[in-house]
Every structure is written in C-alpha cells, then in structure tokens.
Amino acid sequence: MSDDITTALTTNENRLGMFAGRVRWYEEVGSTNDLVLSWADAGGEEGLAAIADTQTNGRGRLGRRWASPPGAGIYLSVLLRPARSVLPLLTLTAGVAVADGIESATGLAVALKWPNDLCVEAGAARWLKLAGILAEAGTSSGANYAIVGMGINVRTAIYPPDVAARATSLEAELGRAVDRSTLVVECLAALSSRYEQLKGYGEARILSEWRRRASATLGRSIEFDAEGTMRRGVAQGIDDSGALLVRTTEGVTRIFSGEVRWL
Ligand code: BTN
C-alpha cells in the first residue's frame, strides 16, 4: 500500500499544491495529528503531511477515540501556517475540501453535519458518519500552526459497537472496492485548492459550498450546552462566521464550538 500511495502522490505532484513532495507515509503511528503537532513544534514548514495505515491512539473531537483499524481507512494530517484571520472558517473549509475529494475520487455525494462530520443519508432523516475532521490550532515558538486531521472510513471494518451503530464506509455505500491512493490524492488536491481559496478572500464561495451540502445539518433537532444548562433547538444553518444557528423557544442562538448532541 505504501508503494501505491507514494507512486500516486509522485505521479500527481502537480495537483498537490503546497503538499507536493511533503507527504510522509507510515505503517503505524500513535496519531497522525500528534506526529504533525511535533513537527509544528519543531518549526516544520506548511504543507508537511503524515498518512498512516493504522493509528494506535487515533483521536476524535471532544477527547473521543477515533477507531483506526489497519488498512481500513485514510488517516491523514497536514500542517498549515494560517493567518489568524482565516482560522474561524478553517474547519468548515476542510470539511468542504474532504467532501470535494471524496466526490472526485468516488462519485459519492456526501452531506456535512456541523461542524465537521461527513455523512450519507441512510433512510428518512437518518445519517451515518463516513468521515470526520479534527482541526487543532495553536502557536509554537511565536509561529501559528493549524493541524487538520482527517479520518475517512474506506472499508467495512470491525468498529466498537457505539461507533458501528452510526458509521458507514465508502465501500459499504458504493458496493465496490475503493482505491485509497486516488482518495488521498483527491483529498490533498482539494484541500490545497480550498485553502488557497480561503486565503484569497473566497470565504463566500466556501460558505455557499458548505451550505449546499448542509442537508445533514438543516432542520435537525439538537441539544447543546448553554453556559452549563442543556437546551434544545432545531439547526437552521450556519452564519457567515461559521457559527451554527439554532432556533430555540427564545429565538435564534449562535453556537461557536463545543458539545452539540444531535437528537
Ligand atoms: C471526529 O469526527 O471526531 C474527528 C476525527 C478525526 C480523525 C483523524 S484520523 C487522522 C487524524 N489523527 C487523529 O488522531 N485524528 C485525526
């Protein structure tokens, strides 16, 4: 597999923008986000990326574990050095890019669930998770960094029961084999191009692409933490800062981050 991915990355180098020549492949790591974070701390340059066949300590949002069985998914993290001004929309931009990448590589249309889950519809108002993004930003030695990590379920694998109940994979959805090399190339090409778009004042285009795919978000009932009190509402969409708009009995509330439970 390493050979296939490395060959595909070399063959398609002209499409990878800032990632060209900067992607390193590993058989096994703890977490690709942790590895790339260590590169950021050591002053690593924008565009460095790590991809692993398996992770022993894959991390999801809100401290959750990300099951990373060998050969079953894409576990990929990249190092970006964004200006502070683009940080608020970086996670949504990554979601749009991974959706673009999956669609180019496989033809499967995916929907976005705020802030960064990629889902497919499995019957009336029931959504299964296909991929997730963990974006972590900070400053090290005076330089900004953002790590964007993506986990995409490619093959049907044995996941923990709580994950299995609400997850799916590309191969389960498509009923055929999916080439991971093509997927990696398309996701990196899309991330490079959407990131350039974000930096080039293309926020409006990114927001409209996100909204176009927002069917896994719109009209869904949620529970959220409002300063220590759990409240309920119905998701209406996102505003131009990327915040989730939720209609409650008291009007529309904006949610910026944190725990949102989809009911
Ligand atoms: C989520 O939906 O909770 C985000 C999941 C992100 C998983 C990816 S896999 C590659 C990278 N390394 C990690 O440890 N996590 C991210």
Structural summary, described in words:
It is a single chain. It is globular, with a radius of gyration of 18 Å. The longest helix is centred in the C-terminal third of the chain and has 20 residues, at 180-199. The chain has 2 domains: 2-214, BirA Bifunctional Protein, domain 2 (2-Layer Sandwich), CATH 3.30.930.10; 221-262, SH3 type barrels (Roll). It has a 7-stranded mixed beta sheet, sandwiched between helices. The termini are far apart. It has 7 helices and 12 strands. The protein is an alpha+beta fold. Bound molecules: biotin.
Topology record:
Layout: H1 2-11, E1 23-29, H2 32-41, E2 49-55, E3 73-80, H3 90-106, E4 111-113, E5 117-121, E6 127-140, E7 143-153, H4 161-164, H5 170-174, H6 180-199, H7 203-212, E8 221-226, E9 229-238, E10 244-248, E11 251-255, E12 260-262
Parallel strand pairs: 1-2
Antiparallel strand pairs: 2-3, 3-7, 4-5, 5-6, 6-7, 8-9, 8-12, 9-10, 10-11
Helix pairs in contact: 1-6, 3-6, 3-7
Biotin (BTN) binds next to helix 2, strand 3, strand 6 and strand 7.
